[in-house]
Amino acid sequence: AQSVTQPDIHITVSEGASLELRCNYSYGATPYLFWYVQSPGQGLQLLLKYFSGDTLVQGIKGFEAEFKRSQSSFNLRKPSVHWSDAAEYFCAVGERSGTSYGKLTFGQGTILTVHP
Amino acid sequence: GAVVSQHPSRVICKSGTSVKIECRSLDFQATTMFWYRQFPKQSLMLMATSNEGSKATYEQGVEKDKFLINHASLTLSTLTVTSAHPEDSSFYICSAYPGTGSSYEQYFGPGTRLTVT
Lengths: 116, 117
Fold this sequence. Notes:
Number of helices of chain B: 0
Largest sheet of chain A: 6 strands, mixed
Number of strands of chain B: 11
Radius of gyration of chain A: 14 Å
Radius of gyration of chain B: 13 Å
Structural class of chain B: mainly beta
Helix content of chain B: under 10%
Oligomer: heterodimer
Number of helices of chain A: 0
Strand content of chain A: over 45%
Structural class of chain A: mainly beta
Largest sheet of chain B: 7 strands, mixed
Order of helices and strands of chain A: EEEEEEEEEEEE
Helix content of chain A: under 10%
Order of helices and strands of chain B: EEEEEEEEEEE
């Protein structure tokens, strides 16, 4: 069964500092990987996704993520954090086959706090 | 494009009553819709997968008689929580999957906050 681990439950950074959120996955084949952001009481917004090809993926709001097969990781990065980036971030792995196309398994989430 | 709505956004109901939550894809047809449940400060847990015109597939541990899912059209799925109890209080989120051509991306609704008193 597929699984996703986000080791950091809560991260605090200063505005303007760089950010890296960790994500490790377990999946039997090449995964579909996603990063979502959720503001309090809201639904999920897709930041970026990886399906194939270039392992460095660019997303919205200045975020990027790198797929590293050897490490089973898909870490999210941003060079300079803005106060508006404070939210909860979820990494997810998607199934590729059978009748479960699109079925996502989410990590536990990482809450990002940004200090002024 | 690719907007998914949920109605209501918040609902409070008494214990023992039933409540229906609607999930609509506004500008595309969704071959598959997913229902997730999110407890406070926790991740999203998939409850069920529904395909238009067929019975929903429930995840292990989810009571199909309690959480009734209907996907009657390509733009509407409903989740009915029957005989609700306080432990059913949660944030319910749906997502819609357009199928081929969508690069396997699901589009999420804004969520419904259910409180059972």
